[in-house]
Sequence to fold (311 residues):
Amino acid sequence: MEAFEPREPRANVLLADEPARLGELEETLAPLGARLIRASCGREALAQLKRREHALFIIAVELTGLDGFETARIARENGTSSRAPVIFLTAREPDGERLARASALGGELLKRPFPAEALRAKARMLIDLSRRSALLDGTRERLERRSAELERALAAAERESELRSRFLARISHELRTPLNAIIGFSELLGQETLGPLAPKQKEYVATVLESGRHLLEVVNDVLDLSRLQAGKLELFFERTSVPDLVASARGIAAPLAEKQGIALEVAASGELPHLNVDPRRIREVLVNLLANAVKFTPRGGRVSLAARAGG
Fold:
């Protein structure tokens, strides 16, 4: 059993000529398999053009009433099958003026009598070109619609990103203010600036301080992620001491290591050169590395951080 193959819809071809010649044109063009639509005058041709799109016009110049040139001109101006090619048929010898008029209307002039096979071949070629042009137009329209949809989606995504950034910045501000107060007062209490603490009190204050710092880091990470996604993360470079960075990272990670029963060793020579970096970002990297090392080290283990000059 043969597989079914969908066929292209039949092309519409308008034949506008004197009634006595229409039969001859139909017989010549019948092998093309197109839908041949008859018109015996210019006005009838225009009426047919308004009803449907056509792949090709074949119009006699010497039509009754409106001639072929005028009929094609009105069709072009009215937008009916405005891009379809035209074959003008004439019984007169083509001159420069007529050839120019035919060309200006997107057509060519063919003098009678002509071989039937020549007209058939030319019509077949023009119908194929018309179909390809219509296909390209349809593809172009789909691409334009898709492009417009993508532009709308991009604009919506940008609005959403902006709203998310504003929301996170607001939340970050609202959370950072009380967190900084908690951390600051916890440090004062832990240092016993306001008076001595009992051992249990010191333990609780250390836990509050550790939790506050951790939550502040989470808030900063969320805000940084939002800025990264929006391409707005800023770096602030400054001359930075490596031992100070290492010591600062150790101070943040030490409570977690102590809680996990892990020894935390840090070694950084004071003779190391200064770096031009964003100290906060580098500190975050070191803290994350230490926190991960502590997390995946068995209790009673050891985590070491060393800094040295190479090269």
